[in-house]
Amino acid sequence: MDVSPDHPRYKSLVIREKMSELSDQGIVARTGLIAHGRGEAFDYLLGEKTTPAAQKAEAAIAAFLLEAERPVITMNGNASALCAAELLALAAEVGAQVEVNLFHWSRERVEKLVSYLESFTDLPILGREQDAVLEGIASDRARCCQTGIYAADVVLIPLEDGDRAEALRAAGKKVLAIDLNPLSRTAQAANATAVDEITRAVPQIRQAVKELQNDQPRRKKLLADFDNQANLAESVQYIIENLTAQQ
Ligand code: PTJ
Question: What is the pTM of this model?
Fold first, then answer.
């Protein structure tokens, strides 16, 4: 479908077209389109901009990644479709491994995702050889890589489902989320959640990485001061105030 650049929701329509095409190719799960719609709805409520709370969480995420010994960024269909190049650049900047980890798992789909990401980068993409199992998830989704997610101390899970976020926490890992829904189980389970649209959040995290990479005392202070529950409450309050101002 041709979308006119004059359309007031041009960007959103172009992204929807891309998601739809990548769904036809099996990169995005069909229900990934529904998840995208839920994200768009929350983004409306947030005024489609990065809030002060999100900015704080993005700085905390950058600090967690820089302090990590074995950071991993997990990639699913939606995150890959929306933000592959930026997430891979972030991985390179913080020395994180990248692992494909799917909710709608099939060997064929993992292969598609790994190949898709390899077309953007020379970084190794984990996921083809899943040789470990994450406790607490009773399905194929528990599969992961021994040298990747299984051994990670810090895991960034953009647009994740709640079960895995909780299982990663239970396994003792620091969990970092990007999720527009401040009420989701993922947002609530994480150590730091950026309640922001992924294509805005990742460039902000990369910028914070630049600012924090040579400043360990500031990183430590940021992490000591960061409280995810309070930050999520700030996002909910922002939505309330944004809606009240519209009346
Ligand atoms: O590719 P797969 O098989 O791993 O499946 C990926 C999806 C996203 C379908 C799967 O993980 C899933 O069902 O996730 P949920 O439980 O729907 O959660 C996705 C969360 O991401 C929801 O809370 C959405 O509000 C949020 N979200 C959607 N789009 C965006 C977003 N958050 C930030 N930016 C977005 N663009």
Answer: 0.96
